[in-house]
Design brief:
The protein is 26% helix and 37% strand. The chain has four helices and ten strands, in the order βαβαββαβββαβββ. Strands 3, 4, 5, 6, 7 and 8 form a six-stranded antiparallel beta sheet that branches. A hairpin with a 2-residue loop joins β3 and β4.
Length: 182
């Protein structure tokens, strides 16, 4: 049996807000809870909107991001997700005087990647990264991931498929929404 989970009609979540962030958090919580009882239910589907993602980053992840996120524009297109953000870094964000001198202040960051999942396996391909409009070479991205991401998440490898969390079976991105089956 295929069931849909929708907390509120899409028209009611048309703006970035604490409410839209809470809606996405409720969807995440439902997926996590269902993942613990996978054998006792049929597949369920949930859709996530661009506005929910923007709200979640701005309001739900505020304490988890080392820079202040001044704005974010999430774009979901066929098989891809992109985020155009404006971030403000403090003068002592990293604790490294040289790095802090380079990154302190407000910067734009654009990220785009292809993302899909099926049969509980996800694949992400980083397509484009720009800082202040300047393309960032892949070697620098790999170095930053090794230094800052791998210590906390050692299994991260952008070149390999990964097991989807919380019992997620598939994820499909289409214009304006991501559809998750769990």
């Amino acid at each position: 049996m295929l069931r849909n989970f929708t907390a509120v009609p899409v028209s009611a979540q048309a703006e970035v807000s604490d409410r839209s962030a809470a809606i996405l958090q409720a969807k995440i919580d439902a997926i996590k809870k269902a993942g613990k009882t996978k054998g006792t239910r049929g597949p369920q589907t949930v859709e996530v909107s661009e506005v929910e993602l923007e709200s979640y980053v701005l309001n739900g992840l505020r304490e988890d991001i080392p820079a202040r996120v001044d704005s974010i524009d999430v774009q979901l297109t066929d098989g891809a997700v992109a985020a155009d953000t404006k971030l403000t870094f403090g003068s002592d964000s990293t604790g490294n005087v040289m790095v802090d001198a380079l990154i302190a202040g407000t910067h734009t960051l654009f990220l785009k990647g292809k993302l899909a999942a099926k049969a509980n396996e996800g694949q992400f391909e980083l397509v484009d990264v720009k800082v202040d409009g300047i393309p960032v070479p892949n070697i620098l991205i790999e170095t930053l991931i090794a230094k800052y991401v791998k210590p906390k998440y050692p299994e991260v490898d952008l070149k390999k498929p990964f097991t989807m969390p919380w019992g997620i079976d598939s994820l499909t991105i289409t214009p304006g929404k991501a559809t998750i089956v769990y």
